[in-house]
Amino acid sequence: MRLRVAWIAWMAAGMAGVLAAAAGTSGAQQDGARPAAAPASAQLGGARSAAATDTGEERPLDAEPFPAEPSKQPTAAEWKAAPRVRLSRTGPAAAGCRAYRTREWLRIRCPELTVSAIALLGGKTEGVAFWIDPPRGGSELPRGGEVMFPIRRGDRRVIQILTFGPGYDGPFTLLPAIVVQEQWLDDEPAPTVTAS
Hints:
Blueprint: H1 2-24, H2 40-44, H3 47-53, E1 59-60, H4 76-81, E2 84-86, E3 89-90, E4 98-102, E5 105-114, E6 117-123, E7 129-132, E8 143-150, E9 156-167, E10 170-183, E11 192-195
Parallel strand pairs: 1-2, 3-11
Antiparallel strand pairs: 2-4, 4-5, 5-8, 6-9, 7-8, 9-10, 10-11
């Protein structure tokens, strides 16, 4: 029994190191690209900023026209005032997530998901940023995370949010939780963004 408890403690300590590293890495890097900046909501304290912007009403993703020219990453104040939007499709796994849009920038926040890692699986890295909330309420595991990226004509990207669960590596196996897919084909009038 002591061996099993020691093994679980060792796994938890190892995962805490991984989580600390993941939380410190605020963006995707590829081919020597600079790391992306932490989302503006990270400056607000993650979950607290989401509560300020969540009025419960969702607008269509393309309710406002997308700007023709790229704009800078939104500030914390802009995210605080950003309206909540409805993605093209949301699966049951992402039911607790909320999306916000300002200009061409989209932020998808999952406040209640235990997030172990977030990864850009493919697509443009420009402007992509991740945030994993630190553990709260006496828990050793982080609860909540978000992704932020610009939506521009011609873009395509796939982002995966992982959680913990039982598996071959024990109780802290990294398991896929949500896949976010974004694309805006040149001949389409609006982008398609799904989370499932």
